[in-house]
Prior knowledge:
Layout: E1 7-15, E2 20-28, E3 31-36, E4 46-49, E5 54-57, E6 59-64, H1 77-86, E7 89-94, H2 106-116, E8 123-126, E9 128-129, H3 138-143, E10 149-152, H4 169-181, E11 185-189, H5 193-205, H6 211-217, H7 220-237, E12 240-243, H8 249-260, E13 265-269, H9 271-275, H10 278-284, H11 297-308, E14 314-315, H12 347-358, H13 363-377, E15 395-399, E16 404-405, E17 424-425, E18 428-434, E19 437-441, E20 445-446
Parallel strand pairs: 1-4, 1-5, 6-7, 7-8, 9-10, 10-11, 11-12, 12-13, 13-14
Antiparallel strand pairs: 1-2, 2-3, 5-15, 15-18, 16-17, 18-19, 19-20
Helix pairs in contact: 4-7, 5-6, 7-8
The structure holds allantoate ion and zinc ion (2 copies).
Keywords: Hydrolase, Metal-binding, Purine metabolism, Zinc
Binding site for Zn(2+) 1: 63, 65, 150, 318
Function: Catalyzes the reversible cyclization of carbamoyl aspartate to dihydroorotate. Catalyzes the conversion of allantoin (5-ureidohydantoin) to allantoic acid by hydrolytic cleavage of the five-member hydantoin ring.
Amino acid sequence: xxxxxxxxxxxxxxxxxxxxxxxxxxxxxxxxxxxxxxxxxxxxxxxxxxxxxxxxxxxxxxxxxxxxxxxxxxxxxxxxxxxxxxxxxxxxxxxxxxxxxxxxxxxxxxxxxxxxxxxxxxxxxxxxxxxxxxxxxxxxxxxxxxxxxxxxxxxxxxxxxxxxxxxxxxxxxxxxxxxxxxxxxxxxxxxxxxxxxxxxxxxxxxxxxxxxxxxxxxxxxxxxxxxxxxxxxxxxxxxxxxxxxxxxxxxxxxxxxxxxxxxxxxxxxxxxxxxxxxxxxxxxxxxxxxxxxxxxxxxxxxxxxxxxxxxxxxxxxxxxxxxxxxxxxxxxxxxxxxxxxxxxxxxxxxxxxxxxxxxxxxxxxxxxxxxxxxxxxxxxxxxxxxxxxxxxxxxxxxxxxxxxxxxxxxxxxxxxxxxxxxxxxxxxxxxxxxxxxxxxxxxxxxxxxxxxxxxxxxxxxx
Length: 462
Ligand SMILES: NC(=O)NC(NC(N)=O)C(=O)[O-]
Ligand SMILES: [Zn+2]
Ligand SMILES: [Zn+2]
C-alpha cells in the first residue's frame, strides 16, 4: 500500500543540516514523513511544485517584541505573526516587555497567552521576565511553560509605573541562582547601565543628540563589561545564559571562549548588525535606531568573520516596533526617538541575500543559524528546526532568483516602517508552511492567519 500524503513538495532543493539535496518532501498530519525522489502522488495529495526553489526549515526567531496585551497599537500578534509568516518564520519567541503588564508573573503570562491565542499565523513560545522583586514568581512562570527568562542589564526604556525594569546585580545574581535551580535559561540584554546612563546624561547635558552621539553613549565597552560580569555570574551560579543581540565580534569571542571553558552560554546576533552600520544610522535616521547601536563598518566585517567561523549560536530579529510617529515626527531628535528596529519580516531574505548570494557562505550555515541551532538551544529540536523525518512540516520555499525592492506595501507590520525599505534583495520567500498548513504564499499573501500554537516548551529541558 502506497503512503497517502496530504502534501508533497516536489522537486525542491532541500536544505538539510549538512547538505542540499534535490528531494520531494511528503507530509501527513503536519509531520514530515518522507524525503525521497518521485514520492507517490494520490488524487487527494496537495502538490506544491518547488522546482528552482530552496526548501528550508522555517526560521525560528527567538527574539520579537509583540506589544499585546494593551499595546497592540504598537504591534499585535496578528500583524507581527503575519510579517513573520511572510518572511519564512514558523516559530517565534515573544519577549516579556513592551506589553502592559509585562510578563513577569503568572497572571501576566495568562493575559499574554490569551492575547496570542487564535491570533498567530505561526507557532510561538513565550518568554517570562526577571525583574527586581519577582524572584518568587519565577517558579510559577517556569511551571506555566515560559521558554526561559529575560533580563535587562541596562534601562529598557518605556514609561509608567509597572514597566519592565533592568536588574541590579543582586537581583541578577539571586535570579540566576533561582533559574539554575529550576533548570531554566536566562536571556540577557547585555549593556552596562552605569556606562550607558552616565554617557547618556552627559550627552543630554551637552545637547548632543545626533545619530553618532547616540552611538557614542552606548560604546562597545558597555557590551563587553556586561558580558564579562554575566559570564562570571554564570560560572558562579551554574545558570545557563543566552546573550541577545550581541553587536561586536569581541563579545562573541568572550562568549565563545566561555563555552570552550565549559559554560552553558550562547550568543545571538541580529541581521541589522550584519547588514547595516553606523552610516545607515546617520542616513536613515531613527528608523535604524536600536540598542546596542549599529556599529562601524569594521565591526560589521568582524561580525561576519566570527559568523563564518561558526562562533555565533543563532540569529534573531529583535523586532522591536513602534508607531511611526515615535520614529519620525517634526522636531523629534534621534536621541528622543524609540530605540528598536522593525525587521522581523526580512531576516531570512536578508541573511540569504547578503550571506549566501553576496558573501558566498554555505546556505546550510545560514539555515542552521536561523533554524537548527535555535531549536537545539531552546529544546524544540524534537519538533522543529530541521527537515527530518518525524519533525513538524515547518517549511519555507525560497526563490533564490526573485529579486525585488522592499516597499512599504510589502510590510505586514502594524506600522509600515523598516530600515530595509528601499533595499533590493536578490531572493524572496515564495511560501511558508507551518505544521503542513500553507500560511503564506507570495501570490496570495497570508492565507491562514490563526493556525499558530503556543509551544509550552521550557528552553532546553526535555
Ligand atoms: N524595549 C525594547 O523593545 N527594547 C529593545 N530595543 C532595542 N533593541 O533597541 C531591546 O531588545 O533592547
Ligand atoms: Zn534588548
Ligand atoms: Zn529586544
